[in-house]
Amino acid sequence: MPVDERAPAVLRTVPPPVPAHRRSPGPARAVVVLAPLALTLVLGLWGIRREDTMWGDESVTHQLAHRDLSQIWLTARHVDLVHALYYTVMHGMYGLFGGGLLTLRMPSVLAMSVAASGIGLLGLRLAGPRAGLLAGLVFPLLPQVQKYAQEGRSYAMVCALVTWATYALVAGVPHRARRRWAVYGATMLLACLLHEFAVLALVAHGVTLAVSRVPRPVLRAWGAAAACVVAGLLPLAVRSAGQSEQVSWIEGPVRLHYFLVVAVLGLVCARVPLEVRRPVRLSALAVPILVLPGLLLLLASLVKPLFVDRYVVYSNIGAALLLGALLDHLHRRRRSPLLTWTAAVAVLAALVPPSMSLRTPQSRSDDVTAIGATVREEGRPGDGLLYLSGRHRILTGADPEDTRSLTDLALAQDPVSSHTLAGIELPAREIAARMLEFDRIVAVRAAGAHPSADPREEAKTSTLRRHFHEYGTTRVNGARVTVYVRGRAPSPKTGTGPDGPGTSGGTTR
C-alpha cells in the first residue's frame, strides 16, 4: 500500500500523570474516633455491677429516678436542685430500661466513651492523628476516669459535654461562624445545668483564647457565648445557693492528691515540643483545663470548703491530651524503642491493681447494699429502727424490703410524700416516747459521723443511753448497725450473767 493511501493515524490523548497526594485523613480520623470509644466502652463494662453493690450518692440517684417527674422537681425545691436535670434524665432512662444497676451506670459508661472519642478528635486537630489516637486511648486508662465511668451520677455526662464544647471552641476559632459558637454555648450551658462547677471550664477556655492571642472577633464571639452560658446558669446558681448545706459535709479538700499528681505530670508534659502549628496550641488548651478548675475550687475553699475531685473530672481532658502529645513525641524521636515499650508496659502493669480495686465495693466511701442487708439480718419483725442522724435514712433507702418489717421510730413523713431525701422526723419528745414503747431497736449510724446538737438527735442518744443497752454492733463499709435492748437481755455470744451486754456493752462483729 502506498504511503499516501494509509489510514490517518488516530490521535490519542494521554492523560496527565496523577500528582502524588497525601493519604486521605478519613481512615485515620475513623480510628482516632472509634478506638478510644471502644476501649472506654470495654473498660466501662468490665465489673460495672461492682459485685451488685451501690454507694450512697448512687442510692440517691436510684431513689429519685424512681419518683414521678413532678416529685423530682418538688424535691429539688428543697434539696439537690443542682442535680435535678440529671435525675430527670435518669427518670427517663429508668422508664425505658428498668431501674437496675446497669441502667443506673450505663449512661456514664456511654458518656465517657463519647468523651474519649472527642478527646481523640481534639488531639488530632491540635497535634496530628497519632497524638489524637494516643490521647483518646490514655483517657480511659486514667483511674479517675475509670471510677466515674461506672458511677450513677452526672460527672461523666458533664465530662462528655465539656469535651465536645471544647472541640466546638477549637473548631470555632478559625471559622468564626455564629452557628459554631451557638453550638459551643449550648453545649457548655447544658454541662453547667447538669453540674454548676462545669462553669469553671468556661474560665479555662477564656484563658486558652487569651494566651493564644486569637483575633478580637473570636474573643467577642466567645464572650457573647460565655455571657449566654452565665445568664442561663444564673437562676439555678441563685436558687441552689440556698441549699448550701448539701456541701456542709466537706471539711477539707477531698482526694486532693490525685489532682496534684496529675496536674504536675501534665505541666511536665506541656514542655514537649510539637511539630504541628495551630491557631490554638495543644498546651495552651490542655494546661488551663487541667489546672484552673481545681485551682479555683481550692481558692474558693479558703472561704468555704468546696474541693471534691469528682466536681472537676473533666480536668482529665487536659491530662489525656498532654500525655498523648508526650507519647507521640517519644514515638517520633525513636531513640530507644525498647525503652519506650518497656516504660509503656510498666505503666500499664502499674494501672492494673487500682483498676481492679475500683471495681470492688470497698472503692467507695460506703456500701448501702451491705448496710441494708445488715439491717435486715439484725432486725426482727416488729423491732424499732432508728437513724443517727435522720439524714442517714438514705443509707437504707435503695431497697425498701430491707426495712419493711421494722418500725421507723422517728419518721413523721416519708421521703417521697415530704419531697425530701430523708423524710421529716417527729419532735424530740415524741421520738423519745416512741423509743420507750419498744424493747429492741436497730440503730444505723454513718461511719465517722459527729454528734449533732439537734434536739432530735440528742433525744435519740440520751434515751438509748439511759434506757437501753448495746446488744451488738456490726460494722460495714460506711456505717455501724447496732442493736439495742431494754433491760439485761442476753448477749449473742456470752449469754446472761455479769459479762452480759448490760455491763460489757455488747459485741462487735
TrEMBL record:
One of its GO terms (molecular function) is pentosyltransferase activity. One of its GO terms (cellular component) is plasma membrane. This is Uncharacterized protein. Residues 486-509 are annotated as: Disordered. It is found in: Cell membrane. The keyword Disulfide bond does not apply. The chain crosses the membrane at residues 28-48, 84-104, 110-142, 154-175, 181-211, 218-236, 256-274, 286-307, 313-331, 338-356. Its main location: membrane. InterPro entries: LipidA_mod_glycosyltrf_83. One of its GO terms (biological process) is response to iron(III) ion. Residues 497-509 have a biased composition (Gly residues). The keyword Transmembrane applies. It is a multi-pass membrane protein. Keywords: Cell membrane, Glycosyltransferase, Membrane, Transferase, Transmembrane, Transmembrane helix.
